[in-house]
Design brief:
single chain; alpha/beta; Aspartate Aminotransferase, domain 1; Aspartate Aminotransferase, domain 2; 2 domains; 7-stranded mixed β-sheet; 15 helices; binds pyridoxal-5'-phosphate; EC 2.3.1.37; pyridoxal phosphate; transferase; pyridoxal phosphate binding
């Protein structure tokens, strides 16, 4: 086989569809979020404002987080030195897991290298623990859940997005004695809509199913202590496994599940994605624990976050832009074409120093390509004004020049 030709073929398919992903090299500036520097391919630097980050609350620059990380590095060095099983379980990991269990009101928590790995490892392991398990998965679940469910070789049913009637039909059609698990998200990151947690828990009770909730885009941001939407709605006790990330609102890195002691013990003992990999660095665990502890008491930052999102949505709506608004902190503006979306993103970056990554298929369905803005407490009036002015100028320009953009 001509391997090089095959690679070229695969890449040119992406170029032709306008789906080829380009990353921009940025250097974030501690103390100045959301401002950063864009290092261009010619080596020059340009100041930019990041409008698509997932450090939703700016905790990546919080003094309490940085102090905990510095302290841990000075005390214990760089890496953990092992897998969790072989010398890589440190006091920092245990402290972080205790913080997480407390956050979600669960008996235990398990930290993984990322929430992606936590989803993949847990969902692919559950059928080993519950032979014959059927997993009911929302059609818009994140790739990490889909991969875990696919890889486990067990039975799966996909229900239409947030459609509890469809979920009910699927549950009712299966053997009442079969073990079952419903996997879904609390905030879907591309549209910013909420999962129907209470209704799904009701169905789980009725059909004897376990519940698995990905709160990656909610932890830190929703609930009186940042325990997510399930905490906000007083439903955490009805969820068997909560999945979350330490890399978005908590501003650091890593992922986890929180569940019963027995569930965590079983996953710890059977999941290859937990067992056969080096544990996260102690300083990362220390920073994440400090961030969680801080956010348990800082409701003001959560309110500022929601206020920034409301302001941006109101201003975009006033301009007549096609935004999706489900009342969450995520602000998608639908462009509806991959080339136009990329062109708009390029023009915002080149002309205005505004960085918002285009979101294309397969992350979102074709025809719904979008710019996804993530306002945060560190985006103030100055940043919002600049963004609104730029979008105002470019949106009308783009509407008049669709052919030019398509060229
Ligand atoms: C819904 C959802 N779950 C899980 C993940 C994975 O999180 P992490 O970045 O910690 O791997 C993401 C990622 O971005 C996500 O959007």
């Amino acid at each position: 086989m001509d391997y090089t030709a095959k690679l070229d073929e695969a890449l040119s398919r992406l170029h032709e569809e306008g789906r080829y992903r380009t990353f921009i090299d940025i250097e974030r500036r501690k103390g100045q979020f959301p401002h950063a520097t864009w290092r261009k391919s010619d080596g020059s630097d340009t100041p930019i404002t990041v409008w698509c980050g997932n450090d939703y609350l700016g905790m990546g620059q919080h003094p309490a987080v940085l102090a905990a990380m510095h302290e841990a590095i000075d005390a214990t060095g760089a890496g953990s030195g092992g897998t969790r099983n072989i010398s890589g379980t440190t006091v920092y990991h245990k402290r972080l897991e205790a913080e997480l269990a407390d956050l979600h009101g669960k008996d235990a928590a398990l930290v993984f290298s990322s929430a992606y790995i936590a989803n993949d490892a847990t969902l692919s392991t559950l059928p080993k623990l519950f032979p014959g398990l059927i997993i009911y998965s929302d059609e818009l679940n994140h790739a990490s859940m889909i991969e875990g469910i696919k890889r486990n070789g067990g039975a799966k049913r996909i229900f239409r997005h947030n459609d509890v009637a469809h979920l009910r039909d699927l549950l009712a059609a299966d053997d009442p004695c079969a073990p079952k698990l419903i996997a879904f998200e609390s905030v879907y990151s591309m549209d910013g809509d909420f999962g129907p947690i209470a209704e799904i828990c009701d169905l789980a009770d009725e059909f004897g199913a376990l519940t698995y909730l990905d709160e990656v885009h909610a932890v830190g941001m929703y609930g009186p202590r940042g325990g997510g939407v399930a905490e906000r709605d007083n439903l955490a006790h009805r969820i068997d496994v909560i999945n979350g990330t330490l890399g978005k609102a908590f501003g650091v890195f890593g992922g986890y599940i929180a569940a019963s002691t027995r569930m965590c013990d079983a996953i710890r003992s059977y999941a290859p994605g937990f067992i056969f990999t080096t544990s996260i660095p102690p300083a990362v665990a220390a920073g994440a624990a400090a961030s969680i502890a801080h956010l348990k008491t800082d409701s003001a930052i959560r309110e500022r976050h929601q206020t920034q999102a409301r302001i941006l949505k109101a201003r975009l709506k006033a301009m007549g832009l096609p935004i999706i608004d489900h009342g969450s902190h995520i602000v998608p503006v639908i462009v509806g074409d991959p080339k136009h979306t990329k062109a708009l993103s390029d023009m915002l970056l080149d002309g205005y120093g505004i960085y918002v990554q285009p979101i294309n298929f397969p992350t979102v369905p074709r025809g719904t390509e979008r710019l996804r803005f993530t306002p945060s407490p560190v985006h103030g009036a100055r940043e919002t004004d600049t963004l609104i002015r730029a979008l105002d100028a470019l949106w009308s320009h783009c509407a008049l020049n669709r052919q030019e953009l398509s060229a």
